[in-house]
From TrEMBL:
Heterodimer of LeuC and LeuD. Coiled coil: none annotated. It holds the Pfam family Aconitase. Keywords: 4Fe-4S, Amino-acid biosynthesis, Branched-chain amino acid biosynthesis, Iron, Iron-sulfur, Isomerase, Leucine biosynthesis, Lyase, Metal-binding. Catalyzes the isomerization between 2-isopropylmalate and 3-isopropylmalate, via the formation of 2-isopropylmaleate. It comes from Bifidobacterium saguini DSM 23967. The gene is leuC. This is 3-isopropylmalate dehydratase large subunit. It comes from the Bacteria.
Amino acid sequence: MGTTLAEKVWADHLVRKGGDGAPDLLYIDLMLMHEVTSPQAFEGLRLAGRKPRHVDQLIATEDHNTPTVDIDRPNPDKTSALQLSTLEKNCKEFGVRLHPLGDADQGIVHAFAPILGLTQPGMTIVCGDSHTSTHGAFGALAFGIGTSEVEHVMATQTLSLKPFKTMAINVNGKLPADATAKDIILAIIAKIGTGGGQGYVIEYRGEAIRNLTMDERMTVCNMSIEAGARAGMIAPDETTFEYLKGRPHAPEGEMWDKAVAYWKTLKTDDDAVFDKVVDIDATKLGPYVTWGTNPGQGLPITADVPDPAKIADATERSAAERAIKYMGLKPGMPIKDIAVDTVFIGSCTNGRIDDLRQAAAIMKGRHKADSIHRVLVVPASSRVRLEAEKEGLDKVFKDFGAEWRNAGCSMCLGMNPDKLVPNERSISTSNRNFEGRQGKGSRTHLASPAVAAATAIRGTISSPADL
């Protein structure tokens, strides 16, 4: 019997096979680190008198707690300042490479690594952050780990894991012009639910997936975790190789040829069997947006807010009632009637150069609605910011009335100054819309950069077709 992409990468990194219910021991190629989940791991090494086993396979950046304005001034938040300074001290002490705030390669941990060419097909990649699944877009087996596991990887460059189940999600047919990668993943989560991928590594397949750019593939894999999956993967192809070639850490010369030859073997065999298969008709997709308080509570933008009374399942009905109350909505109201206060374009889901180009193309020559309180455009990394400014996108955003910020996690989560106030409503290109995610009492609708830009123009949730 053939093997899947995930099974091939697993087998290539097997240090020791577990037995009698014991986990396997896997070698880890790369661990990414940031200020939030690393302090306890460093302290664990310090107390045990250990040093990192392979320090050259660890790399850190600052992202969650970083301000996105006035970055050259002292951080006004004492907790954030302490976390950032602690990371800097730890990296210096243990010799871990760090890209701090103000560095040209600083950025969200899942954005700066691909740009540097550190993320490559067939690798095992971990980070103390759930959205590590982003790197699966390259055909890497990438997933988030806990703080104790971060310490274990630092000390041994290995990780004990039980094999995952495998799921194929086939996105068949061509994507309509008004649908984006974000709409694909929101539609998938709406279909299988936030627990539908639990215990699985998802492989995204099909014509619509193959036609995506690398930036778009990263968006899809990024939100695998929102479906409950352990990881998401896409088989590497010519699009992958073209993206990687010439990047700072990509192989060169003869080593490039050898790498590509290996990367081409990283595809699921025709006779491989997945534990579960889901089919999505890409031709029927369009702009999606969430109405509730988890990423699975999403619908086409043309739909109405659900009426809980019409939901048969008692658990789902109760969840819908709570979500509608929290979000300040009314059952049956058109999603397009929902007025928004703030627009956020950024995050490790949609803060890449393709995303900024998409938003700028819609905003160019227009101005934000008077009812919109603010529009934040935050590149996912400093390199993305530099590229956007080279293309003049920053001018488009500023002329539109948006704030052009420095790189960081920003308003994706309430761990830095970019927060919403209670009952403030945002449309956000980030990945989570939980209660209080963007600030205490905040109300978040997830959408693509295109929908976010159109909403900023009209003041209510809109698609570019509504302009």
